[in-house]
Amino acid sequence: MNSDTVTYDMIRAAAGRLAGKVRRTPLLSSPFLNEIAGRQVFVKPECLQHTGSFKFRGAWSALSAMPEKQRSQGVIAFSSGNHAQGVALAARAHGVPAVIVMPTDAPRLKIDNTRALGAEVVQYDRATQDRDEIGERLAKERGLTLVKPFDSPLVVAGQGSVGLEIAAQAAEQGVSEAQVLVPCGGGGLTSGIALALAQDAPDMQVHPVEPEGFDDVRRSLESGQIEHNPSMTGSICDAIITPAPGKLTFPILRQLCGPGLIVADSECLQAMALAFLRLKIVIEPGGASALAAALFRTDLLEADTVIVVASGGNVDRELFSIALNDSPEVT
Amino acid sequence: MNSDTVTYDMIRAAAGRLAGKVRRTPLLSSPFLNEIAGRQVFVKPECLQHTGSFKFRGAWSALSAMPEKQRSQGVIAFSSGNHAQGVALAARAHGVPAVIVMPTDAPRLKIDNTRALGAEVVQYDRATQDRDEIGERLAKERGLTLVKPFDSPLVVAGQGSVGLEIAAQAAEQGVSEAQVLVPCGGGGLTSGIALALAQDAPDMQVHPVEPEGFDDVRRSLESGQIEHNPSMTGSICDAIITPAPGKLTFPILRQLCGPGLIVADSECLQAMALAFLRLKIVIEPGGASALAAALFRTDLLEADTVIVVASGGNVDRELFSIALNDSPEVT
Fold first, then answer.
1. Are strands A261-263 and B204-211 parallel, antiparallel or unpaired?
2. Cα–Cα nearest to B285, from B213, B237, B215
3. Rounded-to-integer distance, Cα A38 and Cα B203, Å
4. Tell me, what DSSP letter sits at residue A290?
């Protein structure tokens, strides 16, 4: 857990520990989406993963690699929700306690689910309190191991298993060249996928996707140094709003990724409606950002094939109904 | 196409023709659904299949087995919608014309999609006109081959590929004994799955599931002869409302299936909301009937494991919003 590098071999090793524990999500497509995008679009629906997001992969990777004595004392995580559920379920499956530090404004569904999966939830105020400080203090007090949401080699290695699957599933479709769009918060999923594809599908180019106004990763890639978001609230894409790219993830993103893309909240809602209509999957706003970029920001795309990750599906029914009913009819 | 039997070997042959053409849908589950059902529940989401339902399997099976000269003249199908889309896409992929005879009250989404997939749509009045007669006349006039929605050996063989996948995927989970619940209209999917499982998973028992008041199959299984529905309208489960089980399918159902189950429309809506919340998939009312039975008609179930097929996801956004917002909160 204390090493500060992550490699392709670590992703392969994580995939071995994950085998039979995570779902190999399919690669979906629809002629209707291809028509909107003007190219072939494949969607990797990690919303269908256990706990409704890719986060279960990283959590399982971290817990399964811990020495048993350390793991048995329990784990702690801080998260706006999807990482929380991933860690909670992975801890329950390993039979160890989990404490989750969550912001008070996290979607109620995510808080409820985390509790229902057996974790203890400790809440904090996103505007005034530092979640890292809270997490580290609790960890020390109770002897818990902190499972970071993205800036940890074992977590990145677990998320990277998505990239291994993309390379294999695209090859089955005869696709080796593509732009791969990934919803990006701290960069754990994006950097893991980029590392996997650099080896298994070197003609694929990964691009992080962020909401307008919360494009810390895009700006960091442009300036060459870690940039911060001015605010942590104000987008419906809660799952991918983080202060800045990670110290571990940013150098990987910088080395391997193409420029970042940005999308509006309204485009994410419309992508959610189209995923409902054409793919029969449920995506949350942040998780729909990459699909939104593939459908509505096509001027920045060059490849004949775009592969997008739909990173999570934990959305309240109220917000989902808004996405369905307020989106322009696209049939 | 003129043989009047369907065998396990025909299902295997169909699966060979379908390889690389249909999606191998995953087997999903959620600890939250298990808790409601009081047992392990697996869901086979055929809503994620091409065109949003299992029907693409049977259509591909039928078209791919036709002599090329016959196929090139085109195909015709009559359908409330899902079979229509399956045939339309399979015909387009084979580069041949398709005529689809659809009831005037079919969901607009299904009519629009069928047209968008390149088929010619001919509409008829479900209450006063006989779709079989219309279909057969058009077929004769234009030299088209009729692709029946369920009472055809090649179509049943294609649908049976779902059963092969269920047996293999359940075995991967260590499951060999289960009750398998299948939304049932004319019985093509149910009989195909039953034939596949009789060979590959003989300790699984298949049960057809129908809406209350449209339980022709359940009553037919009870009486031992083909019974008819008194009406063809009055349920939101449009995809599985048919006049009676087929001449081909009923003897198979009678030989291989356990008693039929029935569910209320309101239970289907609630199952749709839970599938949204817990599995992140979109199911249409008829397609949700088997999940509804697994969750809410548990007094009729005995096995520790229930596997349900979610047969389709082609639902208008208006009806889906009703399912989300009118269902009791189950968290």
1. unpaired
2. B237
3. 48
4. H
B128 and B225 share a domain? no
In the block, tokens 């524990």 appear at A21
Contacts with A172 from chain B: Cβ below 8 Å: 20
Residue B158 sits in which domain range? 8-53+154-326
Q: How far is CA A176 from CA A160, A167, A204, B120, in A?
A: 18, 8, 7, 36
Task: Say yes or no for a CB contact (<8 Å) between A26 and B28.
Answer: no
Q: Based on the domain organization, do B309 and B210 belong to the same domain?
A: yes
Residues B25 and B172 in one domain: yes
Rounded Cα distance between B98 and B165, Å, is: 29
Q: What is the pLDDT of residues A19-33, one digit of tens each?
A: 999 999 999 999 999
pLDDT at B287 over 50: yes
- B73 and B145 in contact (C-beta within 8 Å)? yes
pLDDT of residue B31: 95
C-beta of residue A74 within 8 angstroms of C-beta of residue A143: yes
Q: What confidence tier does B130 reach under pLDDT thresholds 50, 70, 90?
A: confident
Mean pLDDT of B73-95: 93
CB contact under 8 A, B23 and A26: yes
CB A78 within 8 A of CB A134: yes
State the count of interchain CB pairs (< 8 A) between A and B. Answer: 78
Please report the pLDDT score of residue A239 as a whole number: 87
Instruction: Name the domain count of chain A.
Output: 2
**A17: in domain:** yes
Q: How large a percentage of chain A has pLDDT more than 90?
A: 84
Is residue A3 domain-resident? no
The mean-pLDDT minimum among A57-71, A121-135, A163-177, B185-199 falls in A121-135
* Distance from C-alpha of A170 to C-alpha of A172, rounded to nearest angstrom: 5
Q: Are B191 and B156 in contact (CB under 8 A)?
A: yes
pLDDT at residue number A331: 44
Residues of B whose CB is below 8 A from A117: 31
Q: Which residue of B has its CA nearest to A47?
A: B280
Integer Cα distance of A179 and A157 in angstroms: 21
pTM: 0.95
Please identify, among B88, B118, B152, the residue that sits at the C-terminal boundary of a domain.
Answer: B152
pLDDT digits (tens, 9 = 90+) for A207-265: 999 999 999 999 999 999 999 999 888 899 988 888 999 999 999 999 999 999 999 99
Does the pLDDT value for residue B2 go beyond 60? no
Cβ burial of A13 (10 Å; 0-12, 13-18, 19+) is middle
CATH number of the domain to which B301 belongs: 3.40.50.1100
Is residue B288 a contact partner of residue B314, using CB atoms and an 8 Å limit?
A: no
Q: Which secondary structure element, helix H or strand E, spans residue A306, and what is its range?
A: strand A305-310
Taking 90 as the threshold, does the pLDDT of residue B331 lie above it?
Answer: no
Residue A1 lies in a domain: no
Q: Give ipTM to 2 decimals.
A: 0.94
Q: Answer with the one of A78, A111, A146 that is the final residue of a domain.
A: A146
pLDDT in tens, B188-208: 999 999 999 999 999 999 999
**Cα distance between residue B134 and residue A134, in whole Å:** 71
Same domain, B30 and B126: no
**Three-state SS at B76:** strand
8 Å CB contact of A325 and B331 = no
* A221 shares a domain with A316: yes
Q: Which residue of B lies nearest to A316 if distances are taken between CA atoms?
A: B277
Residue A224 has a CB neighbour count (10 Å cut-off) of 9
Mean predicted lDDT score pLDDT of chain B = 94
